[in-house]
Design brief:
nine-stranded mixed beta sheet, 20% strand, disordered N terminus, 9 helices, two-stranded antiparallel ribbon
Length: 303
């Protein structure tokens, strides 16, 4: 275990601990735990977006730790510090990131009497329904989670995405044996199975909920009963509000509150698909942390 001190303007130290988690199938995952300087009032697990390494969420994690939460970030298998030496020949299931990897993070942060919350970015909001034990979670706050279908996107983005799925992706994966996603400046390279399944499900308006082969998996989304807040910006070309609504309908037994963010009115500048976790989005972070604190108070009142 390695420990890295970090301080903010108020000199509140956030101790960061590097961990190796072991998924249920034995796969090792690199994670980081950000310890609150004060006794924690809750635990958070950050479920990242496709191809986005955990370092992208470091500022949010440190901020949340200073607000009184212990936070865990992780790299899914095949990504960042959890990737093999080469992705060529590396096989996996896209669903593994939720049902195995995020599940391992949830188990690592599970503690009797301590509320446990999830923060999901894009795929991280999909993964909520893939957890083998959603009852371990007390609530989730998602950013930029959507159905991925090109028809929900603005016309120009729709053309770009179709070109990627139908032209660039097939050529690149045939040549490399994986998707060199980093060439587009969009994050980490992706295992070939992630690319193939992602492309398949993005053909449908409701993502894998519309794929008959996924019926057994999507039925389990009904097991999610914790409250969810789903935030999507109007300028998010990949996951606009209509895309969010198409996907979030799958959490049919959960209380889902949808928040549509007008970045111009909010004075946050451009958000797009990735800006939710950049420093200027700190007001959004505080909204999420305030909501978690409220959930904890309600939970304490019931107990």
């Amino acid at each position: 275990m390695n420990h890295f001190p970090s301080t903010d303007a108020n000199n509140q130290a956030v101790r960061t601990e590097r961990l190796t988690l072991t998924a249920a199938d034995g796969y090792p995952l690199v994670a980081h735990r950000f310890h609150s300087p004060s006794p924690p009032r809750g635990h958070l697990v950050v479920g990242g977006a496709t191809a986005v390494p955990q370092g992208f969420y470091k500022r949010f994690a440190e901020h949340a730790a200073r607000r009184g939460f212990d936070v865990l970030t992780l790299d899914y298998r095949g990504i960042g510090q959890s990737a093999p030496s080469t992705l060529k020949g590396f096989r996996m299931d896209y669903l593994d990131w939720g049902r195995l990897d995020l599940a391992a993070a949830v188990e690592a942060m599970r503690q009797e009497g301590m509320p446990l919350y999830l923060v999901g970015h894009s795929y991280g909001g999909h993964a909520l329904g893939l957890l083998p034990d959603p009852g371990a979670v007390d609530g989730a706050y998602t950013f930029a989670t959507g159905a991925g279908w090109h028809g929900w996107m603005p016309p120009l983005e729709r053309l770009r995405v179709l070109f990627m799925w139908r032209v660039l992706g097939p050529v690149w994966t045939r040549m490399a044996g994986y998707l060199p996603w980093s060439r587009l400046g969009m994050g980490e390279d992706l295992p070939i199975d992630v690319y193939r399944q992602w492309r398949q499900w993005c053909r449908f308006p409701r993502y894998f909920f519309d794929d008959p082969a996924m019926r057994a998996t999507t039925e389990r989304f009904g097991d999610v009963r914790f409250p969810i807040v789903a935030v999507n910006a109007l300028d998010d070309a990949w996951a606009p509000p209509a895309s969010r609504d198409a996907f979030m309908a799958g959490y049919r037994n959960a209380e889902v509150r949808s928040v549509t963010l007008d970045v111009r009115r909010a004075g946050l500048g451009a958000i797009g698909h990735m800006g939710y976790f950049r420093p200027r989005a700190q007001p959004l972070w505080n909204d999420a942390l305030d909501w978690f604190a409220t959930q904890t108070q309600r939970r304490s009142a019931v107990v």
